[in-house]
Amino acid sequence: MKKLLLLLLTVGSALSAHAQSQILQTYLEEGIAGNLALKQQNLEIEKALKGIDIARTNYFPQVNFSPSYSVAFGGRKIQIPIGDLLNPVYSTLNKLTDSDAFPQVENASEQLAPMNFHDTKLEIKVPLFNTDIRYNVALQKDLLVTEEAKRKFLEYELRHAMEAAYYQYLQSLEAVQIYENSEKLLESYLRLNQTLVQHEEALKDILLSSEYELSKVQQEKAVAEKNTRLAQAYFNFLLNRKLEEPVLADTAFFHSLPPKLSLEEYTETAFRNRPEFEQLNAGLKTTQTLLRMQEKNAVLPQVFMGANTGFQGFGYTFRDQAYMVGQIGLNWPIFHAGEKKIKIQQTRISGEILRTKTEEAKKQVEMQVYRSFHELETALSALGSKERDLARTEKIFQLVNSRYKNGAAIPLEVHKAQNDRLIAQLSHSLGKLEVWLKYAELKKGAGW
User: Fold this and answer.
1) Smallest Cα–Cα separation from 261: which of 9, 3, 2?
2) N or C: which end of the chain has fewer CB within 10 A?
């Protein structure tokens, strides 16, 4: 417990030392609130809640109003030989009494399908003992946990996608700024070279060379601006907004470095926070609940009480047609070729499968965190090298630029120094993007 508390304090202090960009956090909340997939999952959660309410209704009596009316023509008939049975007796009695007091009767024939017959009744059924009801409520609660874990996973994936898209947008803006600065510098060189050519202090080829270098940078800037528009559109797409809606850029945040914990801390955090484990644990709990229900159902009966009351008879007269039937019933399957036992074994196997999947997921998550952690270290190391390269190219450019203005350097040297500095600036910008993307991957692996 102390170790866990210490880990939480360490994580909290590291994150507070480098809080996430407030602008980005606002966008993340907006994207989560407006995402259509998350809205669908929220509806699934509401549906699961209603499933719990439906399962609870089985605790209460069921009352059904069931009127029926029958009209029949033809069909089978039952022959009742009343005449054959009574007429000989009646004839004998008439002879003995010397009278006609006992008339002859005809044989009867009754149609089996009732004609003009109604059964208007209320059916009431009350469960007295049924373990399935309690466990079915528990199963619906477990399904609710599963749906909530699915929502957390969707939110988790969306958050990572939005973070990565925002970092790419910031880098694209920085690339445009680098090209704009280079364009302004080349324009100043072009003006300087035009002056030199006008005063016949330089040949016209340096003017053509400057125009070429400026045109090349302008083309690259146009590509960078296109990439910015695409990055902006993709980020707005993830936020479910209009594609061309403005996006605020937290450039100061992009120039900073992310916090860093130890590999063990990231791994332990992943085991606690990753939504995949919540889904697997919820599935395992559902399987355990189903197993307990099947075990109880295999040895315990279901007992219920019911009653029927209403009117039954020929014609809708309701006179002398009232009736009431009460009953208590028990349902206790005795033999079905071991079906329930086999189902219990099947559910236990499902539980073992989920436990195996959980162990496999732990190994995969551990590997993912390990890879992301070392990729972030490599990206940070590479960024340090790019910063040193940027400083070197900046120094070289300043020296060559100074010599060129004093007439001690040729245009080729200036253009090379300028291109080297431009490449170093872009490389450094991409290095920062790589660091933040690897940090986002590490956070995703750690379940942040």
Assistant:
1) 9
2) N
List 298's β-bridge partners, or say none: none
Q: Read off the pLDDT of residues 67-97 as tens digits, 9 standing for 90 and up.
A: 988 888 877 778 888 888 888 888 888 888 8
Q: Rounding to the nearest 10 degrees, give the CA dihedral for residues 199, 202, 203, 204.
A: -60
Cα separation, 257 vs 109, in Å, equals: 100
Residue 159 neighbours by CB under 8 Å, 6+ apart? 28, 31, 32
Coil vs helix vs strand at 119: strand
Rounded to the nearest 5°, which phi and psi values hold at 266?
-60, -40
Cβ atoms of residues 250 and 24 within 8 Å: yes
* CA–CA separation, 160 and 153 (whole Å): 11
Query: If pLDDT is split at 50, 70 and 90, which confidence band does 167 have?
Result: very high
Burial 407-424 (b: 16+ CB within 10 A, else e): eebebebbbebbbbbbeb
Contact 269, 446 (CB under 8 A): yes
Length of the chain: 448
Which CATH superfamily, name and number, covers 2-69+125-446? Outer membrane efflux proteins (OEP) (1.20.1600.10)
Can you tell me the distance from the alpha carbon of 134 to that of 59, in angstroms, rounded to the nearest whole number? 8
Q: 19-23, 31-35, 114-118, 338-342: which range is least confident on average? A: 19-23
- φ, ψ of residue 345 in degrees (nearest 5): -65, -40
Q: How is the chain split into domains, by residue range?
A: 2-69+125-446, 73-113
Tens digit of each residue's pLDDT (9 = 90 or more) over 347-367: 899 899 989 998 998 999 999
Nearest to 378 by CA among 431, 440, 425: 431
Whether the predicted pLDDT of 20 surpasses 70: no
User: What is the spatial distance between Cα 159 and Cα 32, in angstroms, rounded to a whole number?
Assistant: 8
Asked if 243 contacts 233 with a C-beta cutoff of 8 angstroms, the reply is: yes
- Choose among 257, 289, 325, 321: nearest CA to 17: 257
